[in-house]
Design brief:
Blueprint (H helix, E strand, L loop, with lengths): L10 H13 L2 H8 L3 H15 L4 E4 L2 E4 L1 H30 L2 E5 L1 H8 L3 H7 L5 E5 L13 E6 L7 E7 L2 E5 L1 H4 L7 H5 L2 E4 L4 H9 L8 E4 L3 H9 L4 E5 H9 L4 E5 L6 E6 L6 H12 L2
Parallel strand pairs: 3-4, 3-5, 8-9, 8-10
Antiparallel strand pairs: 1-2, 5-12, 6-12, 7-10, 7-11
Length: 291
Amino acid sequence: MNIDWRSLPSLTALRAFAATAELRSFSQAARALNVTHAAVAQQVRALEDQLGRPLVQREGRGVSLTTDGEHLADALNEGFLAMQRGLEALKAGEADRPVRVTLTASFAAQWLMPRLKDFWEKFPDIGLSLHPDSRVVDLHRERMDLGIRYGNGDWPGTESSYLASARLVIAGAPSLIGKRDALTIEDMRDFDWILSRSWPEQDTYLRRIGLDPDTLSRTDINNEELAIAAARQGLGLVVESAALIDSDVADGRLRIVHESREKLPAYFIVTLPGPKRAAARAFLKWLKSQS
């Protein structure tokens, strides 16, 4: 049986009558609904007018129900209880659902994973579900709580906040570059390189500083994690986002020998407008504390 939505009275009127029927008082119904006594009485009268029959009658300081009112109250009570149970089940399921995050595999491995121990120490009851993907996925369609994206911070239909610098740097292992903290452009021409032919921003950066990527002694690796791993072994200089090698630099596995000063693009936290689940809010607050 399909519902004839146009024939149904307003939900406001039905709520006002159901509360009045349960509490047998306009005043108590008004307090329960956080509205005025007059508003409840007006909604109940409007419902009676629409249905063409009396539903309540005054009885001392309260009200009693007519026979029609009793029948309608029973039906509404059953319906509102079913709605309440459904909403509570939905909220309970949402509360238990892990926070779903879309991000690239390299950002997950190089930036997020080294920091997650701190998050779980602070929020041991919050689960995370990471979804590595090189694509910019639709947060609503894929039911993602948030995304971490590389770009200029402008994605239609979303809200974004800065998370980490994505400025490009050139880095090498101490075993490759020795004790030097910087290399000249002439020096870098003589080194082996770990590069990717599928990353045009990398070639643009190298050309901007005076290096021709086509003339360098290079090994092509199109996976950022593998490229960084190769650089750690001293197999060549690597061009990478600073955020993805900050732990390597901090621990001395890699040393930055040249860096861009560009502020954009960067890594941004991206969410849909509107309220967030408590677990998602906690993860968002923690993420922003890491920037």
